[in-house]
Amino acid sequence: MAAITKRPHRLSDGRDLIYYDDPDTALDPERAPDLREPAPRPATATMRQDPLTGEWVSIAAARQNRVMLPPAELDPLAPATPGNPSEIPSLYDVAVFENKSPSFGPLLEDANQPASLEDLSTVGLERTRTSVGRCEVVCFSPATTGSFGSLTPTRARTVIEAWADRTAALSALPNVRQVFPFENRGEAIGVTLHHPHGQIYAYPYITPRTNALIRSLERYGPTLFADILERERASERVILAGEHWTAFVPFAARWPIEIHVLPHRHIPDLAATSGAERDELATLYLRVLRGVDALYDSPTPYIAAWHQAPVDTHRDDIRLMLQLTSPRRGADKLKFLAGSESAMGAWIGDIPPEQAAAALREAVARADRDNPVGELPAGIAGLVTAPAASPDPAPEGKIPA
After folding, report:
1. CB–CB of 110/99 below 8 Å?
2. Taking the mean position of all CA atoms in its chain, how far away is CA 18?
3. Main-chain phi, psi angles of 302, to 5 degrees
4. At residue 244, does pLDDT exceed 50?
5. Phi-psi region of 314 (alpha: psi -120 to 50; beta: other; left: phi over 0)
6. Could you report the per-residue pLDDT of 176-216, keeping only the tens digit for each?
7. Is the pTM of this model over 0.90?
């Protein structure tokens, strides 16, 4: 059976770079070294606690220097050329690397790191902790434009394998409490690169959204996700359903476009999915995304967020869930988070969820007709790891070919 191959490398400044090769890849196993002169990493950011909510805010000033909508020939996520010494030295199928200017990390341990979940939940004035953790960039393709929805089923399957592999690896790092893969798509969302890519954050705390979920579980009970799935699958809000996954508009949708995707069995994170579940997800998710784009005549901005159970708590009752949200409420209209939503967290929905689900079902049907996803080749074995390549020093004045 053909396997997706993992090829670990290092960038010139010591950051991890991992290639994930499609099972039918045409790429040579050998990859060029990063010949850029090593540059110092920015200092790890500092978290400050908001005593009014108890939440933590990472102050990551180095992010101010990130690239903003560069031309295609200067795309930092494209394979490197003599005129564009990018982050990825070689042609690739899928590539994952440590963010140069992360919100969390590069330190994983520090004297002022969070001591425990109890330490993080204590509320006080002017409390700080080091923003230990990890932030990674996931490049879906060497193309300079596109998104997850523009991938082939084979490439989508490789990205899902990379998400699962990185979820497992990041969850094993010291002081990581929760792992969050996501994709931002469209300038209306705040995207600064048109290159098809996503990110993975490994947080040193449990996020506010997940803490709110934990409180709901404590009030409702451990069957919350199973009961939601049963109700939604019996409703008119279902968009697509397969053997392993169901996509639906939730009963209390906040956004004009909001889609949740749940696995049919309890799975805490992507690392726990089976090969069959990953195979079906590759095609079902592509159909959902192409349906979202078929709603209007231009691509729809969205955030696709993989909500996963924390690393070391609530693994048996928090279920993996994809939540895709878009502010687009019409062909030329966006929902802005104004006074009630931004100031008070009190949402007002613009479109009834049942109406949104009907529109999305019709859009998926149009996309299936006009832009079909195709079939995932049978016989993908999963992941094998090639021997790690030794990093080469960067000769002065050289850039990757």
Report:
1. no
2. 16
3. -160, 165
4. yes
5. left
6. 999 999 999 999 988 889 999 999 999 999 999 999 999 99
7. yes
- What is the C-alpha separation between 238 and 248, in angstroms, rounded? 4
Q: Residues 179, 181, 187, 193: is their CA dihedral positive or negative? A: positive
Q: Which domains does the chain have, with CATH numbers?
A: 1-204+385-396 (3.30.428.10), 206-376 (3.30.428.10)
Q: With b meaning 16 or more CB within 10 Å and e meaning fewer, what string describes 347-378?
A: eeeebebeebbebbbebbeebeeeeebeebee
Beta carbons of 150 and 196 less than 8 angstroms apart: yes
Annotated catalytic residue within 9, 194, 197, 307? 197
User: Cβ of 346: how many Cβ atoms within 10 Å?
Assistant: 9
Annotation marks residue 197 as catalytic: yes
